[in-house]
Design a protein that fits this description.
Elements: E1 3-8, H1 12-23, E2 28-34, H2 40-47, E3 51-55, H3 63-73, E4 79-84, H4 90-98, E5 102-105, H5 110-121, H6 130-138, H7 142-151, H8 155-165, H9 170-177, H10 181-195, H11 200-209
Parallel strand pairs: 1-2, 1-3, 3-4, 4-5
Helix pairs in contact: 3-4, 6-11, 8-10, 8-11, 9-10, 10-11
């Protein structure tokens, strides 16, 4: 089955460009389009897309609040990728903090856009650039540090989380640590459960905010 995508952006030209890029792929289809975040929840319920590609800034309901609404009200919510102009935008970080699975720059090459959709659909997180790592580290607080301590990760789980924070996929972690893919998947699941993280992106945010991992 192809990966179904809902496009959400208030600029028709942006939606048209994304549609042309994605529908040129044999394994991706565009299920629908919306011009504002306010339309996302009903369209997600109707279309059941695998991925929502959503502008972070929109006039009625922005991508941050739309992300929160989807995750709060939709059973088995789709993966969410926010679309932005600047990678160090505080709005982008807030969207990731709210539960988005990754982000895309509007100037990204077509191949990068396609790969981003495939990556989040497969359950992997998108690599945090240096600017977002610094933002996450700058948001560090005692609550995040205390939560990381309570998680009581094993040495192996801690090692896996550090590699997750570098943006490595399960397969890449398996090769790096000379482990089986299923073993890595088990460790990743344990890390998410202990941190109370929805997905890899949330776990990586926790790692940076707690100081467990530092930019560099």
């Amino acid at each position: 089955m192809p990966i179904s995508v809902l496009l959400v952006d208030d600029e028709p030209l942006v939606r048209a460009g994304l549609r042309a890029i994605l529908e040129a792929q044999h394994d991706i289809e565009v299920a629908g389009e919306a011009a504002d975040g306010a339309a996302v929840v009903p369209m997600v319920r109707q279309l059941r897309p695998d991925v929502v590609a959503m502008d972070v800034r929109m006039p009625l309901l922005d991508g941050i609040e739309a992300t929160r609404a989807v995750l709060r009200t939709v059973d088995q919510p789709p993966k969410i990728v926010v679309i932005t102009t600047f990678e160090n935008d505080e709005y982008v970080y807030d969207a990731l903090r709210a539960g988005a699975d990754g982000f895309l720059l509007k100037r990204s090459a077509p191949a990068e856009i396609v790969q981003a959709v495939r990556t989040v659909a497969a359950g992997d997180s998108l690599l945090f650039p240096a600017a977002l790592r610094r933002l996450a580290a700058g948001r560090g607080n005692e609550r995040a540090r205390a939560a990381m301590e309570r998680a009581a990760l094993t040495a192996r789980e801690a090692e896996v989380l550090r590699h997750m924070a570098r943006g490595l996929s399960n397969a890449e972690i398996a090769r790096t640590l000379t482990l089986g893919a299923e073993t890595v998947k088990t460790h990743v699941s344990a890390v998410l459960a202990k941190l109370g993280a929805r997905d890899r992106t949330q776990a990586v945010i926790a790692a940076y905010e707690s100081g467990f991992v530092t930019p560099g």
